[in-house]
Amino acid sequence: MENDNMEKKLENLQILVNHLTYHYPDGTIALKGINLNIYSGEIVGIMGKNGAGKSTLIKTFNGLLKPTTGTVYIENDEVNNVLMSKLTRKVGIVFQNPDLQLFANTVEDEIKFSLKNLNFSKTELENQIYLTLEKFKLKKFQNRTPFTLSGGEKKRLAIASIMCRSEVGSSKIIISGCNASIEAIATLCCSPPLISNGAFFLRCSISVILIHSLILESISSQGIPIFSGPNAISRSTFIAIN
Q1: Which residues form the ABC transporter domain (predicted)?
Q2: pLDDT digits (tens, 9 = 90+) for 15-27
Q3: Where are the domains of the chain?
């Protein structure tokens, strides 16, 4: 029975960080000896002060940064051995400032661009755009420029632009600096229509949220890795770092 449970646990392992170290070009040690397992279905918050290494860590999840030593696995694939085009369908990052991520003339065009090069037929493309706009409650904004949206609406659009191109059952979404948009957190963590009833969000296997400070007790977090330095990481039910 114990072996069966262990096998199931390994089967549900989505992100594995193994003895990860990262040095910046100037020699600064950003991460040192980090070990972290994140499993399917988890909503995990990574908390820490500015400069603690949170953003550096998540950039190793999608290949933006290569570890100095150690390894990062997404599902069963080592990140360094996976094409970037494949990684973008498995791991998506929503920036702290969505204005750095959004650029299209309209909300609809933002989603359409994200679906580019995915070999959809015209009908499939139109259906996917419609589904995305509906699921993320963006349909009424489809012809508006993204830069006229509220901060929360922009972040919701940024999340939608990532989720629309995800592979079914294997998407991991990362929100950087989520205290910048309470509405986006509610959309991801606390919205029954999207999580309980909407198949669209059910295909997101995990969520990783970077938190700079305590923001809302309504954030549902099963485990929070706490960063206070290059090699300091622990899990807790809910901890605020000032």
Answers
A1: 15-239
A2: 899 999 999 999 9
A3: 42-58+86-236
Question: Strands 204-211 and 43-48, how do they pair?
Answer: parallel
CB 73 within 8 A of CB 16: yes
**Among 21, 159, 41, 163, which Cα is nearest to 101's?**
159
- The Cα 135–Cα 128 span in angstroms is 10
159 pLDDT more than 90: no
Q: How confident is the model at residue 169 (pLDDT cuts 50, 70, 90)?
A: very low
Closest by CA position to 66, among listed 81, 52, 53, 51: 81
- Between CA 55 and CA 31 the distance in angstroms is 11
Inter-residue contact 228 to 49 (CB < 8 Å): yes
Amino acid at 207: S
* Domain spanning 42-58+86-236: CATH superfamily: P-loop containing nucleotide triphosphate hydrolases (3.40.50.300)
Give the CA distances from residue 239 to residues 56, 63, 95, 205, 234, in Å, rounded to whole numbers and listed in that order: 21, 29, 23, 24, 10
